[in-house]
């Protein structure tokens, strides 16, 4: 089996440790070959084996010098301008601030002269130059050693590529690149080109760039190797004649293709990550420039960000296209139905993952740019604020596109799932496996119900709210007490809206189960046991959501009211408040429904107001008016005759007072408002169906 290649992030900082390895620790240099400690001008540092004029000290020089400290076991010393040129041991080399006020142990010139100094960095005509301070033989030895190790590293890297070990290949590629830079540095010293040596030292001190270059080189070598492996597998397959051998070689060829496709995708994915990081860094730099009122710099950075974001978009789309194309190629090459289904599902998963990754990247940038926009407005940078707003709008358009693409992918994938389930049901029926066919109805109805929810935008609402909840919870972790109060209020609203959306999704699945049950009964004359069970399951879940509207205090008050009702009406059946469900509205009862003499009576005010009606109680008449656009209802306590839009209607039972509240026949008031009511006996649940203009 050919080893599959997976992208691994490798962070290697070899440059300085390798550099230090070539600095002799026991030089044979004479005092004439380097400046004597007493002759060195004040303001010089001795760091490891580097003698550095303070004015020539840069971060790359400091990093390289510190690397030599580990090899030489020498610390950091400073020749002060403030103490008659005395040398000070400044805390063993880790606190450069000590040069401003040197104190502590002084070191004699004689002790400094005993120490190893391999490189001298100082200014010549105002420019940094680097000089080798040991013998030419030492320098030649260092160059030869570096070259030998470079050759060995390159050979080891080639072997790692041949073995398909990408992690080791990248490590060795970086080592070879570091050694190559080391050789260039030492050869510049040998040629007496101090300025060139300083430039090479700058390169050597940038391991991130060396790493990036090394990764590119290693990836190119690995890709060539994988392409060669695939070509070899294809040639072997084309040449084979034995069926068993051909089958074996076909698997090897597929594996070689997988290896190459995985490698290409991982390499491109790495480019995507790099591009995302670069764009975010530009956005952060832009935000700082706006904050510092550096208008020209901010405009330049905005232009750079536009170009970088275009590259990000191209890379994201390119990566997804590449991944999907590889999977679609596999689909074309197989006739196995199960394998095709798995590949189609993998395409959908790949797309959703890609959309999520791109969305996360854009949202991170938006967060930075929104802060910059607010700062620009606050500081009166009107032109910059306008350009930032335009940029934010551009990203918002792309985020909308991502959401639409993700939704289209979900719907397409689910359609394929539904088609497959229908096919399985037909096959089960044809084989006489009626129980299997019946059991498959549950996943089919669930998929169809969720599909309806997705097409109506309910799934998008749920996903958006869930994402918002995650963000608010993240803010809560670092919020002040005052901020936490507002965030908790926001969280409460989000949770309420999430429950509403989830309830709508459950209703759509329940309705699909009812529709499918009707189809089954029309076809077979019987009901489906699976759908019957499923129907009750979803009613139970809907009721659980309905109950969450009530606080512990609400439920305690309702329990007390239930006892009062039973005391007044011993023959009454009191239903739990969550047993009244409605898809289109949320009804919150302050009195539970009551079944008395076979009729369901309900507190008139909450149900009417939930549907947008106006309720007016006349205490003198003991009557109630309900006004809803397009309908008016009038009824009176103890009177079986009610008025609907001015016309008399005879009620089965009159309105009455129970526990001090007006209750009316449920069916009457619901139908008077243009709605419908159904009763589910197994669950003792009342469902109000329909909508009214509000």
Automatic annotation (TrEMBL):
Residues 585-688 form the Copper amine oxidase-like N-terminal domain. InterPro entries: Cu_amine_oxidase-like_N, Mao_N_sf. Residues 1-31 form the signal peptide. Keywords: Coiled coil, Signal. It holds the Pfam family Cu_amine_oxidN1. The keyword Nuclease does not apply. Residues 385-431 form a coiled coil. This is Copper amine oxidase-like N-terminal domain-containing protein. It comes from Tumebacillus avium.
